[in-house]
Specification:
Layout lengths: L4 H4 L2 H22 L8 E3 L9 E8 L2 E6 L6 E3 L12 H5 L9 E3 L8 E5 L5 E5 L2 E2 L24 E4 L5 E2 L29
Parallel strand pairs: 1-5, 2-5
Antiparallel strand pairs: 2-3, 4-9, 6-7, 7-8, 9-10
Length: 197
């Protein structure tokens, strides 16, 4: 009866407890380290992995602009502040935020160092480029279509984004529509946008 509990515990168990505690602490600190508000980005190639969000470039008549990995055009809204999104509700229905899925990757002329994320009010992370929150336009129904370029919907202009992170204010002829792109208003286009799922 003079043996303590610790003396009766087998040696492998004595060694396993500190190792398990160390692994648990490392896992917790690693998970806590990812809450900085910005996801790491990597520079990809055109044949890169398809898991994650890819931001790449496309050449149009108004200049080279950013798209996602499937070629869908992305926009910035001048009403947003740096690393801030104020487009919610009906605005986010017409201009859906580009949400981060997996690792952020830059391809083509896009710069990995300019990619980041911000928290959305309803949850999830929205992709940013050089501090600008990125959005799609619901009226674009095909790759590299730029129907939202120059729109003044929801009280401020929507512009294509250059690889340098600046807004492109020149007209782009890849609108795919016969009407003015500034008629986006608070409603979505009647054209099919289901191809983007």
């Amino acid at each position: 009866m003079g043996k303590s509990f610790l003396a009766r515990v087998p040696a492998p168990v004595k060694l396993g407890v500190p190792v398990a505690a160390g692994l648990l602490a490392a896992a917790c600190s690693s998970a806590a380290g990812t809450s900085s508000g910005s996801a790491p980005a990597s520079s990809g190639t055109s044949g890169g992995s398809t898991s994650g969000t890819v931001i790449e470039t496309h050449s149009g008549s108004g200049g080279t602009f950013l798209t996602d990995g499937s070629g869908r055009t992305v926009y910035l809204w001048v009403k947003d502040g740096m690393n801030k999104s104020t487009c919610t509700g009906a605005c986010a229905s017409a201009w859906p935020p580009v949400m981060a899925k997996g690792q952020l990757t830059a391809s083509g002329g896009a710069k990995a160092s300019d990619l980041g994320t911000i928290a959305r009010p309803g949850g999830g992370k929205q992709v940013t480029y050089d501090g600008h929150a990125l959005y799609y336009f619901a009226g674009d129904s095909s790759a590299a279509q730029t129907s939202g370029q120059g729109s003044d919907s929801f009280g401020a202009k929507w512009w294509l984004v250059a690889p340098a992170g600046t807004q492109i204010t020149a007209a782009d002829t890849a609108t795919g529509s016969s009407g003015s792109s500034s008629s986006a208003g608070g409603s979505t286009s009647s054209g099919s946008s289901s191809s983007w799922g």
